[in-house]
Design a protein that fits this description.
- The protein is an alpha+beta fold.
- The chain has two domains: 159 residues, 2,3-Dihydroxybiphenyl 1,2-Dioxygenase, domain 1 (Roll); 196 residues, 2,3-Dihydroxybiphenyl 1,2-Dioxygenase, domain 1, CATH 3.10.180.
- 23% of the residues lie in helices and 33% in strands.
- The protein is built from nine helices and 17 strands.
- The chain is globular.
């Protein structure tokens, strides 16, 4: 299918789709599941470094023989860390190929059966037929379709369930695994990296299969250095509760950061998850105190910050000390900062974002961010 021509608009998002017109109404992100080599240790890292509460567990002790999973929660964010119990099977194969990484960007829906039928009828890749899971707390219906690489989207219908998370999980009550949270509230967006030439294919996939719209586009004229560049388009559902930017590398003199990700992840996958906070200064200070490493931004970025973005509430000297970026759009401004990769492979990282009215993605910061990631890439010898 030929990719449609899309006008570049960095400021205007589409009007929300009326509920009666939306064949795939989405309530938000239900959970993000990671396949990891050691779920217990990964859970401990996210608890100690990012302030997640380890709330639940599923594994051999609860009757699930093939894998162990830990449920982490903070605000409305749910992460699930899953590890296989042996070297065989799809979970182990995923880890052998990709290292630790995101498998499932699960979406909260009112009707998981309808979501599966409507999306697969439009060309969605069927992964899991609608299945009902039950226990003494009620029932959950879950289905799934594929997207880029080995990543999937589960559709989770949980209106008839009042348990911890879903059948099979039990509460995890070890108090030393329940640190003070750092102020993370919910998932703002999730970014995927795909190979050169595949971005428009998945833009079409989200438009045709899930009814998403392209709300922002960036070309290599927007995001580039002397040596590397990338292109990106942001897909969102009707109410914009779900936003999936999709990146691809652009042809350039050297290997771009997207190429580096694709090389080390061995294919397309989730590059980073952006998490919202109401107080980015507090959150970043707490994360730094717990050992989270962030990308470095030169202090010259802050020399003319207020001339570029106008009046802001936060003291510029504090933003400069922490390395927090600021950008403005017609609806307000946002503050954002990016961690270094949290794996030894330079793959998954996180964005911490606070929106003060802004609906965009920090286009004014993209060049500074791109250069910061490129400096890290050069230090690894992968530029």
């Amino acid at each position: 299918m030929e990719a449609p021509t899309i006008e570049r608009d960095l400021t205007t998002a589409p009007d929300a789709v009326a509920p009666g017109d939306d064949f795939l109404p989405l309530n938000g992100t239900d959970y993000v599941e990671f396949y990891v080599g050691n779920a217990k240790q990964a859970a401990h890292f996210y608890a100690s470094a990012f302030g997640f509460q380890i709330a639940g567990y599923k594994g051999p002790e609860t009757g699930y023989r093939g894998a162990a999973s830990y449920l982490l929660q903070q605000g409305k964010i749910r992460f699930v860390m899953t590890t296989p119990m042996g070297p065989e099977g799809p979970i182990a194969e995923h880890i052998a190929q990709h290292g630790d990484g995101v498998k499932d960007l699960a979406l909260w829906v009112d009707d998981a059966t309808s979501a599966f039928e409507e999306t697969t009828r439009r060309g969605g890749i069927p992964i899991r037929e609608p299945e009902t899971l039950e226990d003494e707390h009620g029932r959950i219906v879950i289905s799934a379709i594929g997207t880029y690489g080995d990543t999937i989207h589960s559709f989770v219908e949980r209106s008839a369930y009042n348990g911890l998370f879903m059948p099979g999980f039990v509460a995890y009550d070890k108090p030393y695994w329940k640190p003070e949270p750092v102020g993370l509230k919910y998932v703002d967006h999730c970014v995927g990296n795909v190979a050169l030439g595949d971005m428009d294919k998945y833009v079409d996939y989200y438009a045709d299969v899930m009814g998403f719209k392209n709300i922002v586009s960036f070309t290599d004229d927007d995001i580039s250095t002397e040596y590397t560049a990338l292109m990106s388009k942001v897909m969102a559902n009707g109410n914009e509760r779900i936003k999936f930017p999709i990146n691809e590398p652009a042809e350039s003199k050297k290997k771009s950061q997207i190429d580096e990700y694709l090389d080390f992840y061995r294919g397309a996958g989730v590059q980073h998850v952006a998490m919202e906070t109401d107080d980015i200064l507090l959150t970043v200070n707490k994360l730094r105190d717990r050992g989270v490493d962030f990308l470095y931004v030169p202090t010259t970025y802050y020399d003319d910050l207020q001339a570029r973005v106008g009046q802001i509430d936060e003291p510029v000297e504090e933003l400069a000390r922490l390395g927090i970026l600021v950008d403005r759009d017609p609806d307000g401004y946002l503050l954002q900062i990016f961690t270094k990769p949290v794996e030894d492979r330079p793959t998954v990282f996180y964005e911490i974002i606070q929106r003060k009215g802004a609906r965009s993605f920090g286009v004014g910061n993209f060049q500074s961010l791109f250069e910061a990631i490129e400096r890290e890439q050069e230090a690894r010898g992968n530029l």
